[in-house]
Design a protein that fits this description.
The protein is of the alpha+beta class. Helices cover 56% and strands 13% of the residues. It contains twelve helices and nine strands. Strands 1, 2, 3, 4, 5, 6 and 7 form a seven-stranded mixed beta sheet that branches. It is globular and about 75 Å long. The protein starts with 6 loop residues before the first helix and ends in a 6-residue tail after the last helix.
């Protein structure tokens, strides 16, 4: 088995890095933060021109027809640049829409199918922005939503949302909501990560379209977990690079601080964490793309490890930088704050540990191997 990226995937990563170096440099990211827009339209337009939103969408719908590994390749790069654009949310939403259409369209009527396909194409070409939220809201017999989700990234700037609904009987389903049509676009809320807008999706009877049942909900959770794990990998890897570069140039007592054993050990631990993140995130992306039977186990493992590791790596990078790490001039805080938001999106490490325990217990009770 080949565990390396293919030549095409490496070329994709290099092209993505070049685009983001041009449109999402630290100075450009700070400009977005200072302007308090949480969204760089020029960067987003460049991503759309390259077909990024449709990276996993089949060519029949106008996408590139690639897989989640290629999506992870792009996310590692957007994470390493703290890119202020709704790329992750757009692709996860599109994945759910495609699954909904391909699954036989569930209980959708012809008009609803046409609506989903119309929104799908608009999301691919960047004409609309999507947000996604995992925490279930109540759904009544008429498919209307009630209650609020967890804080959703880019919700204040989105026209479409994919959320989880739960009926009074406990049945879960995946729901599509047109935020503009239903008048439920939320206001922006204060957040530590100022590179992205954040808002609570609150529903008071908003109509929705069902994209699928329990299986679609689990796939949605897996997709979101894998995506956030891959983005955290990029941010952690960039934090490690920044820490190593600073340790080489910062001198104390006539020597680079990187020559001190304590700093060496901290950087070595960061490297171990980042390489672990890379292995588990890409395996989970492959498992999701291949619809592997252990897809959910891989997704929760990736989200658990990457959430904990990203916190350790960004905190260590801050320590290596010392006092300057707390200043606006230092880039580390951009990745530390971004990791804190990614860490709790689509379930934090504690949530996914509990989910892993349930899945592994079921395998043991069925007499299956957990290795």
């Amino acid at each position: 088995m080949d565990f390396e990226l293919s030549d095409d995937q490496i070329a994709l990563a290099e092209a993505a890095r070049e685009l983001l170096d041009r449109f999402a440099s630290p100075a450009q990211v700070r400009e977005v933060v200072d302007a308090d827009t949480g969204f760089d339209r020029v960067l987003w337009s460049a991503m759309v021109d390259q077909g990024w939103p449709g990276i996993t969408v089949p060519e029949a719908f106008g996408g590139l027809g690639l897989g989640f590994v290629e999506f992870a390749v792009l996310l590692e790069q957007t994470g390493s640049h703290a890119a202020p654009a709704p790329f992750l949310q757009q692709v996860v939403a599109l994945d759910s829409l495609v699954r909904g259409v391909n699954s036989g369209s569930g209980g959708m009527d012809r008009d609803q199918i046409d609506t989903v396909i119309r929104l799908l194409r608009s999301l691919i070409n960047g004409g609309m922005v999507a947000t996604v939220a995992w925490q279930p809201v109540a759904v009544d017999e008429d498919g209307r939503l009630h209650g609020s989700t967890e804080p959703a990234i880019f919700a204040p700037l989105a026209e479409v949302a994919v959320v989880v609904g739960q009926s009074a009987s406990g049945r879960r389903s995946l729901r599509l909501v047109d935020l503009v049509e239903t008048g439920t676009v939320p206001r922006s809320e204060p957040a530590m990560d100022r590179t992205r807008k954040l808002g609570w999706l609150r529903f008071g009877g908003a109509p929705s379209i069902e994209l699928g049942g329990e299986e679609a909900v689990e796939a949605f959770l897996d997709a979101g977990a894998v995506a956030h794990a891959a983005e955290m990998l990029g941010g952690a890897a960039r934090s490690l690079d920044l820490a190593v570069a600073y340790a080489k140039e910062r001198h104390q007592f006539g020597r680079p601080i990187g020559s001190f054993q304590a700093v060496k050990h901290r950087c070595a631990d960061m490297l171990v964490d980042v390489e672990g993140m890379r292995s588990v995130a890409y395996y989970a992306a492959w498992a999701y793309s291949a619809d592997d039977p252990d897809r959910s186990i891989a997704a929760s493992t990736a989200k658990t490890w990457c959430s904990d590791a990203a916190r350790r790596v960004t905190a260590s990078a801050l320590q290596v930088h010392g006092g300057i790490g707390f200043t606006w001039e230092c880039d580390v805080h951009l990745f530390l704050k971004r990791a804190q938001l990614d860490e709790v999106s689509f379930g934090d490490a504690s949530f996914h540990r509990a989910r892993l325990a349930r899945m592994l217990r079921a395998k043991v009770e069925a007499g299956e191997s957990v290795i």
